[in-house]
Amino acid sequence: MSRAARERTLDISTTTAREAAMTMHGMLSTVGAALGGMIGWDATAAPPADEASVRRLLADLGIAVGADGDLAPALRRFQRHAGLADDGVAGPRTVHQLARHAAEARELTALHLAA
Predict the structure, then answer these.
(1) Could you tell me which of 52, 49, 47 has the C-alpha nearest to residue 19?
(2) Which of 15, 43, 64, 98 gives 91 a disulfide partner, CB atoms 3.0 to 4.6 angstroms apart?
(3) What is the pLDDT of residues 61-89, one digit of tens each?
(4) What is the rounded CA–CA span in Å between residue 26 and residue 41?
(5) Rounded CA gap, 85 and 24, in Å?
């Protein structure tokens, strides 16, 4: 393999590893926030939820985010439905409930039982 080919391969590998690490970080921060909701952390103690992960959870539930990209109205809608304080913030309790309801929605979809 030529030196140029090795450098291209290294560059691609580095980019892929960086993207994977960023995705893993986002997932871990969302998992951390959801776990915090399970054990009763308040919003100041919990790690922040990853915005992209919150968007995916909302999408799994069929809740659209506005064209302006603001998550707050979609979060308020979910929070009202879930019986949470509708502050529009993806705090630990909200993320925990989002993750739980999204997992149930994915299971129902897989079984072809979703509405």
Answers:
(1) 52
(2) 43
(3) 999 898 888 999 999 999 999 999 999 99
(4) 19
(5) 29
